[in-house]
Amino acid sequence: MIMAYTEAFRRSLKFSALIGAVDLVAALVSGLDGFSPSETLGDLLLVEVAVLFILAGILDVGSSIGMAQLRRVVLASKEDFSSQNRKLAERRVMIVLFTGLILLTVMILLAVVDIFSRSTPSAQ
Fold first, then answer.
1. How far apart are CA 99 and CA 93, in angstroms?
2. How confident is the model at residue 67 (pLDDT cuts 50, 70, 90)?
3. Which residues in 15-26 are b (16+ Cβ under 10 Å) and which e?
4. CA–CA dist 89, 85 (Å, integer)
5. Residues 27/44, Cβ–Cβ less than 8 Å
């Protein structure tokens, strides 16, 4: 089980680095248009964290035994609940959750740095 967590965390680091790089480029481009790059980066991170957490919930509920039974009754699906599919879904959920947590941590650190930089009087 520990291997599953470390593998999920390793993949999450890759995904969060990719998302962060794209966000950083978008924030720098928005700075050319007169927007604050740090505020743009924070806003992008906030939306992405929310989407990642919602996606993790959807993936988790979608692979549950209750949802499998609902699909079988409502949609007349022949696919039954599989513990193997559930384990794969749990691994995907861990990756999405860890990615969201990493981005949330970056967003909080960005907000703290922004707060302290605004409260510190600038030397002139």
1. 10
2. low
3. bbeebbeebeee
4. 6
5. yes
pTM, two decimals, is 0.81
* 46 close to 107: Cβ distance less than 8 angstroms: yes
Please state the domain extents for the chain: 2-115
Q: 92 is written with which tokens?
A: 């995907």
CA-derived radius of gyration, the chain: 20
Residue 70 has pLDDT above 80, yes or no: no
Q: Which residue type does 40 have?
A: T
Identify the residue with better confidence: 58 or 64: 58
Torsion of CA 58, 87, 85, 81, to 10 degrees: -80
Residue 70's identity, in one-letter code, is: L
Give the C-alpha separation, 17 to 9, whole Å: 12
List the structure tokens of 47. Answer: 């939306």
